[in-house]
Amino acid sequence: MTRGVNVIGIGSTRFGPQPNKGIVQLAIEAAEAAIRESGIERERIGALYFGNFISGPLTGQEVLAGIVADNLGLPNIPCTKVEGACASGGIAFRHARLAVESGQCDAALVVGAEKMTQAPSAMITAALNCAMDNRSDGVSGLTFPGFFGMAWRLYEQRYTLTRAQVSAVVRKNKANGLLNPIAQMGRALSDEDIEQSPFICDPMRLFDCCPTSDGAAALVLAADELVTTGGAVPVRILASAQTRGAARIAGHADLCSFDATVSAANRAFKEAKIDRSHINIVELHDCFSIAEILDSEDLGLIPRGQGAQWAKEGRTAVGGELPINPSGGLLAKGHPVGATGVGQIYEMVLQLRGDHSNQVKGAAFGLTHNLGGTGVACTVNIFGRHDA
Amino acid sequence: MTRGVNVIGIGSTRFGPQPNKGIVQLAIEAAEAAIRESGIERERIGALYFGNFISGPLTGQEVLAGIVADNLGLPNIPCTKVEGACASGGIAFRHARLAVESGQCDAALVVGAEKMTQAPSAMITAALNCAMDNRSDGVSGLTFPGFFGMAWRLYEQRYTLTRAQVSAVVRKNKANGLLNPIAQMGRALSDEDIEQSPFICDPMRLFDCCPTSDGAAALVLAADELVTTGGAVPVRILASAQTRGAARIAGHADLCSFDATVSAANRAFKEAKIDRSHINIVELHDCFSIAEILDSEDLGLIPRGQGAQWAKEGRTAVGGELPINPSGGLLAKGHPVGATGVGQIYEMVLQLRGDHSNQVKGAAFGLTHNLGGTGVACTVNIFGRHDA
């Protein structure tokens, strides 16, 4: 006894350093844009879910859901911050969708935000490490570049993987970022640029890593009954799955695959009742270049061991058979952690409306993928055009 | 088309300094106890909601929902941390109940935890201030004792309020705490003890303030269909309401009343379909002595201006007409922030089973109240015995 839920309004700040704006201001800007575009009256919004990861340690501000609702002049509704490390934004989206689908309310607001660039880099690294189980992994000196670097090393032992293949992922996403007006660091890079950039954590070089960022994104979701013909083109939510995986490295059976992604994708496709072959566009969690490769295989969209070669052959570029991260992804668009999962949906909605600045022609079905920690939390969402 | 949801298992650590245990260990202990008592198989648990406020700033550990689920050996289920300042635990409970009620799953686990006492007091104060809108209130030097001190001053201008009346609240809760084996600081206090304790923030003295604490509490919720006759006595959830209020002082029309509490109580009673006169026992958010007075009036349980006098006359003691905080409340049981809202329900379930160490005789209906920040978030829950 569920009902259809749609994205009827979207908003986003630019991603990247915004030294003159705090996290609350960023969140309000994105939310105001989404509400305005949706055309909905504030009184119709029945729940707010806020995705944020490390505002406490980095900005000294929590209870963001209530503060932002108050500033927006929303009614006296339940306002909840949710956290699941880098998947916080995707988790916020899923809960807003559940609130509308289950009839708790007819419309809900989702906001994701993070403010990071004001902090010294050592503090940022420490805050990001809140996403590991620090009784084992963090205390052993592990960082996230180290974690994904180990996955890279294992992957290249098992499959064919060249530096040039991985660089193709970086080149694609940085080039896509150039076409995205809200991206942090789109850039035309040569393989040489990438492969001579400084090591962050061998084999990971600077351009293999997403930048820290500031930013916010927001969405208004509404039940079918509230969709009007006058407003922005609504996009259908076909599925939203949230899963968990191992919390520490030793719990993973295989570092080349994250169970949480595999199971979230399987559940999402089952719910959406479409095949993987229907997906025209993917926004996935490329926190590092190697992550895009692992994710695309875990999602079941590219055969195991071929993710990097697909990028090298241009098959994941806009114009290829499976465009991945036309937004620039985390690598180029930036990764304001709590905003990322919401920002992916912002990009997807633009694509399915046909309004994206790096448009995938004829895109009818899209998938977003948001991964937290060392694979401990994941959300996969599937969207469709109403006429698809 | 909703279905009945019950608390079928409860667990809690002792509240108070636990220097040898981290937040994850505390949470696991409480959760294991709740699961054990419920008699449920882990595979039946379909969602985990984790209430926590400031684990990031104080312990450097986030993504607690996934970490704890992993350690408990729960299946691959959605695991979500929720945050709403001091109301985080109540918000976690509400979401677990929604998950079962709406049919997302048949059973859900709620955990609330906080680990505070290892931090220097200045760091704790700074972390607690994450619950204010720091663009206005925090930056002006406001702290929570200061905020509630202002409310006290306004209240005593408006109504009759003596130091002896407020001390009666403190004496009652500290004495109740003596009877609670998991309370942090039950104590037999004279009015003189209270009134000669050092000022924290005039008019607030030491014993008017709840202590910082470590601790965790957990609950297993299940749909009616899963309730068996063999396990612990199930307690019915009659209502759960979550609301928001003003995020900053200047937004409150009246500092003697928190809109979020008033509206949450009204919604909860409407959902529970019982009158206020049916409530036999209350666990409410007495972060400060004055807060118990304000809360009891905002909940509509005691007429305006009479909350303190009711305490003085013993009407809110166990054996009185409306026992408030027989557990000792935050003042004596302690306030490990994210655990508090869950711990209140732990106490209520013991009472409605007839198993509490400070039992209210014949208690059939109870209410729990959890308030966040300067009134920005609130949950009110109502429970009933199955035979009531």
Descriptive account of the structure:
The structure is a homodimer of 388-residue chains. Chain A is an alpha/beta fold and 388 residues long. Chain A folds into two domains: 5-120 and 212-235, 3-Layer(aba) Sandwich (Peroxisomal Thiolase, Chain A, domain 1), CATH 3.40.47.10; 133-209 and 238-385, Peroxisomal Thiolase, Chain A, domain 1 (3-Layer(aba) Sandwich), CATH 3.40.47. Helix content of chain A is 36%, strand content 19%. Chain A contains 13 helices and eleven strands. The first copy, chain A, has helices at residues 23-38, 55-59, 64-72, 88-101, 121-128, 144-158, 163-178, 191-195, 259-272, 289-298, 307-312, 329-333, 337-353; strands at 5-12, 45-51, 79-83, 107-115, 199-201, 204-205, 214-223, 235-244, 281-283, 365-372, 377-385. The first copy, chain A, has a nine-stranded mixed sheet with strand order 3-2-4-7-1-8-11-10-9, sandwiched between helices. Chain A has a two-stranded antiparallel ribbon with strand order 5-6. In chain A, a hairpin with a 2-residue loop joins strand 5 (199-201) and strand 6. In chain A, helix 1 packs across helix 3 (64-72) and helix 4 packs across helix 13 (337-353). The model of chain A has no long low-confidence stretch (mean pLDDT 96). Chains A and B meet through helix 2, helix 3, strand 3, helix 4 and strand 8 of A and helix 2, helix 3, strand 3, helix 4 and strand 8 of B. Strand 3 of chain A pairs antiparallel with strand 3 (79-83) of chain B, so a sheet runs across the interface.
